[in-house]
Specification:
The protein is of the alpha+beta class. A 3-stranded antiparallel beta sheet has the order 1-3-2. The chain is built from 6 helices and 3 strands, in the order H-H-E-H-H-E-E-H-H. It comes from Paroceanicella profunda. Keywords: DNA-binding, Transcription, Transcription regulation. Pfam families: MarR (PF01047).
Amino acid sequence: MSPGFTDDYLLYLLAAASARASAGFHTLLAAQGLRVPEWRILACLASREGLKVTELAQQTLFDQPRLTKTLNIMERAGLVRRRSDPSDRRLALVTLTAEGRARVAPLLQQARDHEAQVLARFPAADRTRLKALLIALAG
């Protein structure tokens, strides 16, 4: 039998690899009471405090309506805060609350540990090359 289209189609392979690699970490997030969109927002804000909503949408790969809906949920849960940008009151800046920082801190290490497990089957040079290729592709 000849290979099917998706057997070597890059976009399918990227999606399949992401789904398989992420599954275990997504289970961990669910056990912590977090959804993947909330994790992405927390992870982005952990190293980039005070992002504009448009910047956060780009970083999280969400469209603005989806991001706004998720931010509303997270704000009610006390994880994030929106405030006016002092340089342009029409814009909102999103920051982590103390609770948001406390929730994301251990998850960042758990995410790195999970990443290490996913990549452990590859030699170090392949891990480095894979990340470099993905960074270039995402660039």
